[in-house]
Amino acid sequence: MFIFKFIFRILKWVVILFFSTSILAVIAYRFIPVYATPLMFVRCYQQFAAGEEIRWQHEWIPLEQISKHLPVAVMASEDQRFLMHHGFDFEAIQDAMEYNKTHKKKRGASTITQQTAKNVFLWHGKTWVRKGLESYFTFLIEMFWSKQRIMEVYLNSIEMGKGIYGAEAVAQNHFGKSALNLSRSECALIAATLPNPLRFSSKSPSAYMLKRQRKIEHQMKFIPSFPKEGEAYDPHTTSGGIYHK
């Protein structure tokens, strides 16, 4: 009996420690820049293991120093209801489930908040454990962060090329300018690469990438301008679409 009580006590303190530290970490990152993520370290190890030169280019900048078109472009490409949902797009999940019933190539329904949770706090993979933790951190992020903070962290931490992370790094490397000066079409091209930035490049886009770019630019018409901290989105900045329903 003593052994079972001891194990139970240990497990109880492990659970308490996990929940307390994870909540504190989420609250801290509400204010502290995210200078490194687990994926960045994983990519460095992969490069080292392959005998390649380690490449890690990342520069944190506030959302105000990122082109106003980039949040709209990534929403158009990755999560069109970002400003409407609370971390989980249940309509997109239902659509993906129906689609996957009849198609071999599966479609996901991960939101920008979920991707941020994965990028900042977790490892990449498709296990149920990781998905469960992703849901947990998504809930915490939506509870403690604003939509503006979620977008700021997302645009600063997401992988955008080999060894390239965040808006400023990809702007400097692929377009020779700051993230603030990225054009609407350049932002659409960056967003077009996000399903697989190691395969697709915004620096030397293929015909397929240019086609995706045009499609995203069209979808951007239906996404409102990204609101400032404390403001609600304005549906009148769109040309119709889901934000007018």
Overall geometry: globular
Based on DSSP secondary structure assignment, what is the total number of beta strands? 3
Query: The biggest beta sheet, please?
Result: 3 strands, mixed
Order of helices and strands: HHEHHHHHEEHHH
Helix-residue proportion:
40-55%
Low-confidence stretches: none
Q: Which structural class fits the helix and strand makeup? A: mainly alpha
Describe the protein's topology.
Layout: H1 2-28, H2 38-49, E1 57-58, H3 69-78, H4 90-102, H5 112-121, H6 128-144, H7 147-157, E2 159-161, E3 164-165, H8 167-175, H9 184-193, H10 207-219
Parallel strand pairs: 1-3
Antiparallel strand pairs: 2-3
Helix pairs in contact: 1-6, 3-9, 5-6, 5-7, 9-10
